[in-house]
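Input structure tokens:
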């Protein structure tokens, strides 16, 4: 698995290379990066860093519900892991509880 921190990696050439080598593209939610869910293997990792304030911002129930729907409806995804890294406050803990309880 790789987690890129520069938007230049969001391109078909990178996706194809990762797919060809069985490497997971870790999707991130970060204010300066694209929010696309990139599927390069049957397992998906999503890291929620907090947006717009990295490590602090909380995610709305609507956002979490939409994320869950996207992951659940994609037939290419067999396993999905969602990590909350907005933990400089209680936001990450609360969001993880919301995500697990409601979805």
């Amino acid at each position: 698995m790789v987690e890129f921190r520069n938007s230049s990696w969001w391109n078909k050439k990178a996706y194809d290379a990762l797919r060809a080598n069985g490497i997971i593209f870790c999707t991130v939610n970060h204010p300066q990066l694209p929010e696309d869910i990139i599927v390069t293997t049957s397992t998906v990792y999503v890291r929620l860093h907090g947006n717009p304030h990295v490590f602090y911002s909380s995610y709305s129930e609507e956002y979490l519900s939409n994320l869950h729907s996207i992951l659940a409806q994609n037939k290419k995804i067999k396993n999905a892991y969602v990590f909350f890294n907005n933990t400089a406050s209680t936001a990450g803990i609360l969001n993880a509880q919301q995500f697990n309880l409601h979805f």
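The beta strands are 27-29, 43-48, 79-84. The radius of gyration is 14 Å.
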